[in-house]
Specification:
Number of helices: 15
Number of strands: 9
Shape: globular
Strand order of the largest sheet: 3-2-1-4-7-9-8
Radius of gyration: 22 Å
Structural class: alpha/beta
Largest sheet: 7 strands, mixed
Distance between the termini: 41 Å
């Protein structure tokens, strides 16, 4: 999915930094896993712990590591999922025949505005069937009513798979479809209010198909990841210090904490709601989850204490640490190294790697990308 701070382009640099540590890797912990791509990088190397306070991260990790060997024909499987979802969609259409919002290429701004306002008002409607969260709460926001009906329907079908690995693959593929249909700037901090200047762009996203994008990703995911993985995955949704306390001494911990005052629980709240499907209390225009988690690493008043507790936990547990950070983050490189030296002590060797990197701004400014130096700090535990 479109993910701020994603590490896909950094995987080679991360792998090089790990090799240069020259340590035996028996276990690996992806401490702030996000989309869990670094967890998957290590899948063939050792046992992996993929941790993140957000539930969607755990689900994505399980989708990567899933054993789909029972699915002999991925195209047929994807088609069957969509056939079952189509039945639910048709049932909704029969139950609510007046809820019909048609988006067409020649639609005018005035007519589209009427459609959008009518869908936004559905948050006050009492839908009777169980899987109605998205069409009630998000129609006319990031997605259209029709797109939300499909989101609810596919999410309902996923529940039929229970503990089967296909459950995670279905929801992960739905996350992809939602991400590329959303009329926002790449995240879900806020959807775009309709204006005469942007309505053609919004219309383009309203006309995208959730089932088409879902099927494309489900087939790809089942095909690419359906390779036996020799090592075990454990997923946790713990605070980083609590997670470290569960690790074996000698574990290599990869930490990629937030760099700036951006709360991921605000930028990806609807994905968390999709996974948990728990009818949360919604707040503000963006319809955020109430009581969202806020990391101390993206709070100027708490970031120093957050790193101190991280370094202390690593030292106490006897782990190695690989830390991703940025030259334009809240703490400067020298300050971060000084904190590490104070709290890790002399029993750790320190190396710093850097890579020129274009950071996606995700709509937070007029400039789409920003040039940064991505820093990777290597803290290698010497003999205890």
């Amino acid at each position: 999915m479109k993910y701020m701070g994603g590490k896909r382009e950094m995987l080679g640099t991360i792998a090089d930094a790990i090799r240069q540590m020259e340590i035996p890797i028996v276990s690996f912990c992806d401490l702030f896993a996000g989309t869990s791509i670094v967890s998957y990088l290590m899948a063939d190397e050792c046992d992996v712990v993929s941790n993140d306070v957000q539930s969607y991260s755990s689900l994505i990790a399980k989708a990567y590591f899933g054993d789909y060997s029972d699915i002999t024909n991925v195209d047929e499987f994807a088609d069957n999922v969509l056939k079952e979802a189509q039945k639910i969609v048709e049932g909704v259409e029969r139950r609510y025949p007046t809820l019909c919002f048609v988006y067409e290429e020649e639609l005018s701004f005035d007519k589209m505005e009427v459609l959008e306002l009518a869908q936004l008002a559905l948050i006050d409607k009492d839908f009777s069937e169980g899987f109605s969260l998205f069409k009630k709460c998000y129609s006319g926001t990031y997605w259209s009513y029709e797109q939300c009906v499909w989101i609810d329907a596919i999410r309902a079908i996923s529940e039929r798979y229970g503990d089967d690995p296909a459950y995670n693959a279905i929801i992960a593929s739905l996350i992809y479809a939602m991400s590329y249909c959303a009329q926002s700037t790449g995240h879900f901090a806020q959807y775009r209010s309709l204006t005469p200047s942007n309505y053609r762009s919004v219309l383009m996203y309203r006309m995208k198909s959730i089932p088409v994008l879902f099927r494309k990703k489900l087939v790809e995911l089942l095909s690419v990841t359906n390779i036996p993985i020799r090592h075990r995955l454990r997923t946790t949704t713990l605070d980083c210090v609590d997670c470290i306390a569960t690790l074996s001494p000698g574990t290599l911990v990869y930490a990629d904490p937030p760099y700036s005052a951006v709360h991921y629980s605000r930028f990806y709240h609807v994905i968390e709601t999709l996974v948990r499907y728990d009818n949360p209390k919604l707040e503000h225009k963006g319809r955020y989850r109430g009581n969202r988690y806020q990391s101390p690493f993206d709070q100027k008043s708490n970031v120093v204490r957050a790193f101190v507790t991280l370094f202390d936990a690593i030292r106490v547990q006897g782990c190695h640490l690989l830390l991703s950070y940025s030259d334009n983050a809240m703490l400067a490189q020298d300050e971060l190294i000084s904190l590490a030296q104070q709290h890790l002590g002399t029993n750790y060797s320190i190396n710093v790697f850097s890579k020129d990197y274009q950071h996606m701004k995700m709509g937070r400014s007029d400039k789409a990308r920003m040039d940064v130096h991505e820093l990777i700090f290597s803290f290698k535990l010497l003999k205890k």
